[in-house]
Amino acid sequence: MDSPLVSRLQPFGTSVFAEMTQRALQFDAVNLGQGFPDTDGPSEMVDIAVRGLREGLNQYAPARGRPELREAVAAHQQHWYGIPLDPGSEVLVTVGATEGIAASLVALVEPGDEVLVIEPYYDSYSACIGIAGGVRRSVQLSFPDLALDVDALRAAVTDRTRVLLLNTPHNPTGKVFTAQELEQVAQVARDHDLVVISDEVYEHLVFDGRRHIPIATLPGMAERTLTISSVGKTFSLTGWKTGWVSGPARLVDAVAAVKQFLTFAGVSHVQPAVAHGLGMPDAFFTGFAAELQAKRDLLVSALDEVGVPVSPCAGTYFVIADLAGHGVQDAVDFCRRLPEELGVVGVPVSVFCDDPEPVRSLVRFAFCKKDHVLEEAARRLQRLGSA
Question: Which CATH architecture has domain 7-41+283-386?
Answer without folding.
Answer: Alpha-Beta Complex (3.90)
